[in-house]
Amino acid sequence: QVQLAESGGGSVQAGGSLRLSCAASTSTYYWYCMGWFRQAPGKEREEVAVIDDIATRYADSVKGRFTISRDGAKNSLYLQMTSLKPEDTAMYYCASFTSSCGGGDPRYWGQGTQVTVSS
């Protein structure tokens, strides 16, 4: 069982930046995928960015603005968000897989952290 705890959300004006962090309760295999997902009111949850030992993948809507990274020594996952837009407003969730990216759905989810971007 892996518990995930997100932090770093908040309110920011358009064009601003935020850095989300996700702390895992235990280490996972370095090749296991971890990622960030988001869900806006009235919309389905969508993948934002994922990372494993080989590559990273980003949603088209955040490419060039968001950067995902992980620190295995700290069992942590990060999402650096820049040039934020109002359409980035959502609850952001950290997720952990039991496979490499593309090998299935997330197994564990965090509780989420709210990001609100005002125009």
Describe the structure.
The mean pLDDT is about 95. By secondary structure, the protein is mainly β. The strands form 2 sheets. Strands 2, 4, 5, 6, 9, 10 and 11 form a 7-stranded mixed beta sheet that branches. A 4-stranded antiparallel beta sheet has the order 1-3-8-7, with no helix packed on it. A hairpin with a 6-residue loop joins strand 4 and strand 5 (about 45-50). The protein is built from no helices and 11 strands. The protein has strands at about 5, 10-15, 20-25, 35-40, 45-50, 55-60, 65-70, 75-80, 90-95, 110, 115-119.
Describe the oligomeric state of these chains in a short phrase. single chain
Summarize the amount of helix as a percent range: under 10%
* Strand element count: 11
Structural class: mainly beta
Runs in which pLDDT lies below 50 for 5 or more consecutive residues are: none
Global morphology: globular
- Specify the number of helices: 0
List keywords for this structure.
single chain, 119 residues, mainly beta, 7-stranded mixed beta sheet, 4-stranded antiparallel beta sheet
Write a brief structural summary.
This protein is an all-beta fold and 119 residues long.
